[in-house]
């Protein structure tokens, strides 16, 4: 079976600085994959390249076997790959429903005429979309704020809203860039639970995160980046015990891996 | 009454009052002011579509306004078409012109876009002045005839007023439908956060181009009608005064709010006239009002109301 996402020999340089070099990995349909690595290891550049926000120098990206290399971001999104942003992005002046309505895909079958004169098909699509938006907002626990403009949300709440918006169009793959950085630690488990629920319903995820515990508790597969290329990949257990991973994070591989894995947490910027 | 019912009642009342103005007011001067007000309001509302919704600060509106005016004047005077065909031609020419310009410049960054549109406006005024064979240059084209429809000549200010009123109401109704539709929602989403919109599968260019073209067509037709109100068109029709008026209406009202711009448009027309009680200080007071509004409500009246609403919400949430 074709993997959901294939990245083959991806390279990207910024005026000579090689941010990503020859990175290759695959994501299976229906899985949660984690992407970790020290600061500056090219994680965000990689997902910027995959989602079309950066032009790829060389290499290929295939979504469900279809070429999406260097497509425009909007085309990639329509092909079924939706990403969120590290510095959370929402439409500040819109209420939560409208934030999700913008992200809704079924409208794309309808043209401007439908939207302008509000044809029956359009109204039906809008009604269905509104109900789904309400369900998703309820899922992320923001239903109490549904009519408030997004600007009043806290940083963590905006991340939850961005997550709900990503779910809205029922994409094939959701790429989350640091979904729990800045989220109240008490709510991190809740985010994990939501991701697992969505995953059980068939959604696939690629998660870039610094919070190693979060990744290990959630992912089927973890990919480790260092200095722009893939260092290793495997199950969370395999990766946790890989001396090269500890070396990448800490410079040396201390003797008891368990302590070192805890030590990794220092690197986590915790803004909350 | 819900807020939508209140709005509907206010709209019906305003339309009724506007329709009765020629009966209520005997002075041609006042009716003339009302015509200008309606036409300026239409141009400002379409500027609001480009600037307030699509986030494109377009000075090209002035160019489209002038092109529209000259198109209708020339179709009537040189090609013997009727006023109505002239207005239509103004719309079609602006449609083509704005599509061509839009395709070229819509992807540019904010500053480049402002400069490019400003250049187009200046170029249009240069053409109006220097292409003497067609535009008659600085002499202009005087004596534009009154429009006629089925034997009825719109030869008095009061009669012409109804042309302006019908045009304004249809243009505003169309813009209202557009701005409150999903298209308006998407346009404002792009303006707020274009990477996010892109990441959700929304291509910016078609939306921005559509807003630019629609605004150009409406502004052009408004210019076409206004030229026949003045009964003369010359290069001063492309004076920056017009662009300034449109911008002031949009900025004072609040970019991106349909009703605020409509109300501000009406206020900007009424205010200078209401201040006639002290003729010497009239323009001074007008200026002071503008400065004060901008100092205390930098995002316009609608922006100020919105900020207060958000502040109240924040307090309630704490």
**Regions with little confidence, pLDDT below 50 for 5+ residues of chain B:** none
What's the pLDDT, averaged over the residues of chain A?
A: 83
Strand content of chain A: 15-25%
How many DSSP H or I helices of chain A? 11
For the record, the count of structural domains of chain B works out to: 1
Structural class estimated from helices and strands of chain B: mainly alpha
Features:
heterodimer; A: 272 residues; alpha/beta; Rossmann fold; 11 helices; 10 strands; B: mainly alpha; ABC transporter involved in vitamin B12 uptake, BtuC; two-stranded antiparallel sheet; 14 helices; 3% strand
Description:
The complex is a heterodimer of chains A (272) and B (318). With 272 residues, chain A is of the alpha/beta class. Chain A has 11 helices and 10 strands. A 6-stranded mixed sheet of chain A has the order 6-7-8-3-9-10, with helices on both faces. The longest helix of chain A is centred in the middle third of the chain and has 20 residues, at 120-139. The termini of chain A are far apart. The model of chain B has no long low-confidence stretch (mean pLDDT 86). Helices cover 77% and strands 3% of the residues of chain B. In chain B, helix 7 runs antiparallel to helix 10 and helix 11 (240-253) crosses helix 12 (258-274). Chain B has one domain: ABC transporter involved in vitamin B12 uptake, BtuC. By secondary structure, chain B is an all-alpha fold. The two termini of chain B are 31 Å apart. Chain B has 14 helices and 4 strands. In chain B, the strands form 2 sheets. Chain B has a two-stranded antiparallel ribbon with strand order 1-4. The chains are: A alpha/beta (272), B mainly alpha (318).
